Each structure stands twice: as C-alpha cells, then as structure tokens.
C-alpha cells in the first residue's frame, strides 16, 4: 500500500499527461503530491526532511511550469531531486558517523564499515547519473519521450541498480544458524 501511495502522484501525472497534456498533468501532480504528503503525515505522524524538500521542489518547479507556461522547469525537477539526494548521501558519508544508507539499512543487514562506504558512494554516483540521464532525455527527445522515461526509464534504472546492489550484498548475508534440539 505504501509503495502504491508513494508512486500515486507520478501515476496521476503520467495518466493526466496522456489524456490532457503537460499543464493539467503538472497541476494534478502538485495536488496529488500535497494529498500524498497529508495522507503520509496522518498515517505515520511525521514527514522526513527529504520528503518536505521533494514537496517544495514539486511546488517550485511545478508552479514555475504553470506560471511561465514552460515545461522545462518541471523537467528539471527529477534532476534537482536526484542531485540533492546525491549531496545528502555524500555529505552523510563524509561528515556523519553513519551514512544515510547505513541508517536506512543497518537494521536489516550487518556490513563492515568499508562496504557501507562503498555502497553509499555507489548511491551518490547513481543519483548523479540519474539526474544527468533525465536532463539528457529532457533536452534531446520530445516531451512525450521524456514523460515515458520519467516513469518507466527512471523506475527501470532504479530497479536495475537495486538488483545489482542486492547481488553485491549477497556475499555478506550469512545463512541462518540451525538450532539444535
């Protein structure tokens, strides 16, 4: 349910774009993002800092797209979000005892510190590359291609990266010890 709720604004944007175009889709994306944040707060009682930042970027870039009637503002939003994630992950890896990645995952898996650092750096590079890929598609392909890439391409890149990360992590997963009865 949470995964669907997290993707709902993107799905709303995609469907609305296909039916009515960029500007209505952008307006509906803003509304869906606000509703999602409200729902998230009511269910979880809190909203993470990066969720607030992402919502602010939706409002800023989506609002600029509607105000100036220029879709390029909205096309920049995924890049800015990805690059902010890259900065946050990089900063946490350099200046904190535990990186953001380690904080998110260390309850599920125990890894040596150098491995956490390597994974964190891999995510930094992934976020930078994702942002660059978004700009490449936004500037070199028609708007409809960018919309498809935003949903399917970015999702596919993320899933592929996560699968590669899982394969890398598999060597560190210890088999469960059998209990002697």
Describe the structure.
The model has no long low-confidence stretch (mean pLDDT 92). The chain is 82% helix and 0% strand. It contains 7 helices and no strands. The protein has 2 domains: 1-69; 71-173. Helix 1 (2-20) runs antiparallel to helix 7 (143-169) and helix 6 (113-140) runs antiparallel to helix 7 (143-169). By secondary structure, it is an all-alpha fold.
Properties at a glance:
single chain, 181 residues, mainly alpha, 2 domains, globular
Give the SSE map.
Layout: H1 2-20, H2 22-44, H3 49-68, H4 71-95, H5 100-105, H6 113-140, H7 143-169
Helix pairs in contact: 1-2, 1-7, 2-3, 3-4, 4-6, 6-7
Distance between the termini: 39 Å
Which value, in Å, is the CA radius of gyration?
Answer: 19 Å
Gross morphology is globular
What count of helical segments does DSSP give? 7
Low-confidence stretches: none
The counted number of beta strands is: 0
What does the average pLDDT come to? 92
What is the string of SSEs from the N terminus onward?
Answer: HHHHHHH
Q: What does the main sheet amount to?
A: none
Amount of helix: over 70%
The structural class is mainly alpha
- Tell me the fraction of residues in β-strands, as a range: under 5%
How many domain modules? 2
């Amino acid at each position: 349910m949470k995964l669907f709720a997290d993707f709902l604004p993107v799905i709303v944007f995609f469907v609305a774009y296909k039916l009515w175009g960029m500007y209505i889709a952008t307006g509906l994306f803003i509304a869906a993002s606000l509703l999602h944040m409200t729902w998230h707060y009511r269910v979880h009682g809190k909203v993470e800092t990066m969720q607030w930042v992402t919502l602010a970027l939706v409002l800023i870039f989506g609002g600029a797209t509607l105000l100036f009637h220029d879709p390029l503002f909205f096309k920049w939003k995924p890049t800015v979000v990805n690059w902010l994630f890259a900065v946050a992950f990089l900063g946490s890896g350099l200046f904190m005892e535990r990186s953001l990645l380690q904080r998110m995952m260390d309850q599920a898996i125990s890894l040596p510190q150098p491995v956490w650092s390597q994974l964190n750096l891999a995510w930094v590079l992934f976020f930078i590359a994702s942002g660059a890929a978004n700009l490449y598609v936004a500037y070199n392909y028609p708007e409809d291609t960018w919309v498809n890439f935003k949903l399917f391409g970015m999702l596919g890149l993320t899933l592929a990266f996560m699968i590669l990360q899982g394969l890398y992590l598999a060597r560190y997963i210890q088999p469960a010890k059998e209990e002697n009865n």
